[in-house]
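Open question from group meeting: does this chain pack into something compact, or does most of it stay loose? Before anyone orders reagents, we agreed to write out a predicted structure and look at it together. Recording both the input and the output here so the notebook holds the full record.
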Amino acid sequence: MTEKMSLTTLDSLTIADLHKMPQSSYEEKTQVKDFSFYGDSLVLYDRSYEPLESDGYFGRNIMLKNIATGEELTWTFSGGADTGLSLQDVPVGVYEIYLADGYAFKRAYMDEFYRSEPYYTIRNDKKVNSIELSANNVFLDKFGVESDENYLYLTVTESLPIARVSDVVIDPSGYLLDSNGTAQEWYSADGFDEAEQSERLAHLVASYLEGAGLKVTFSRIDQTWSGYAGVGSRTETAYDSQAKIFLNLTMSDSQASRPFFISSPFTNGRLGNAISSALTQNGIELYTPVSVTQLNAGNSYDQLAVKEDGSLLPFSLQPALRETGGYVTSAGQYSGWGANSAYSKARGMNALIFCYASGQNPESIEYFKEHEETIARSIAQGILNLNSVEITLSESMKVPVDNSPAENSEQMPSVDESAQHYIVDDEGSLEIDPSSESVYEEPVGLD
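Structure tokens returned:
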């Protein structure tokens, strides 16, 4: 059960605080049929969300009007799930929600009552905001207002961080199981072991993020095998942490000589763009697999699954992107991944794959080893920049992060407590220990 704040900004307001008495009805209004949370982005839809379908609100502005001050804030729905209303940037207050229709704004409402679980922003100066989305015709009943519709409101309340809520999940490659529980190989040659290097890079990035006050959770513990499906998975660890960002660190099997990113095709690639900018500003060279106008250097989109007739399916191929994006990326809906069906309507994390080197190109490995520290610092800086954390990182700002993450319960809650355990059979293969038991908790989602 998600912890709720005992007192919200709405609770603290009196009639004397209001800019003017809120209306109980509006002639100009628009019905919101669906919505999504992805990273720090909230997007509203005029129909049920479909990953490959354009929505009527695409290109429109969303406006928040503060009921106490009358201040108006606007964002534009730019098509990607990561480019909606930026929750990280909304100041404390209670807001009415409006959507543009031409030059006029219409009051947004939903057909049924709704109140979200609290969304917690990324830590900034040791504080977070707790945010709730509500559709409620008696939302303002304390002021004697009963509305004719379930109008939409956003309540933003300043809060102290909750210890079990993380900001970023870092997912180092290695010790990976596929959706069938089969162990996957990783690159290891000439003294360069991908699993070890990915974990080392994960700790370097975490040391900078935690130096800036963020909380990081790791998706795997030391040499524990885990995948992206089901109980005890990296996915479960990530959703349980309520993180806003999921960062996979891996090696590619391409011939790329420099690092590059893979972003979800259901986004505008904002996370990858922010990290790209930080890397290039610090002199890091990037490889761009495919040039896309809206993506910065080094950033690319994951491919979509294809039917036998060549038509596209609404699923991206990389599970690190697809299975962590919740509702937006259809987690648990792709063939063979039903173990994640509980996350099909969950709030999604803004996920990114960072390929720091290629096993097919020794030059890329040497480049990474030479620039590892700068790469780690730049990744962390890009995350801070994206989330309006106004800190410029330097090497002196790192905090020690234990190289044995299993011993660091503050940063890496053990997935073993609720995991299926794997044992080695007589032939040396991994199999599920039948004596292990699992505990499942419902993820935070749309319902």
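Observations to bring back to the group:
Confidence is low (pLDDT under 50) at residues 1-5, 403-447.
The CA atoms of residues 167 and 243 lie 5 Å apart.
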